[in-house]
Amino acid sequence: MIQVIDSIQATPRQIVEALDKYIIGQDDAKRAVAVALRNRYRRSMLSEDMREEVTPKNIIMMGPTGVGKTEIARRLSKFVNAPFVKVEATKYTEVGYVGRDVESMIRDLVENAIRLVTKQKMEAVSDIARTAAEERVLDLILPNINRNIETVSADPNATGALTVTTREKYRNKLREGKIDSLPIEIDVEEHGGTPIGMISGMGGDEMMMQIQDVLDSMMPKKTKKKKTTVGNAFKLFEQEEAQKLIDKDDINALALEAAQYKGIIFIDEIDKIAGRGGYSNGPDVSREGVQRDILPIVEGTTVNTKYGPVKTDHILFIAAGAFHMSKISDLIPELQGRFPIRVELKSLTEEDFVKILTAPENALIKQQKALLSVEGIDLVFTDDGIREIAKISVQLNETLEDIGARRLHTVMESIVEDVSFNCEEYTGKTVVADSEYVRKILASEYKSNNLEKYIL
Question: What is the pTM of this model?
Answer without folding.
Answer: 0.74
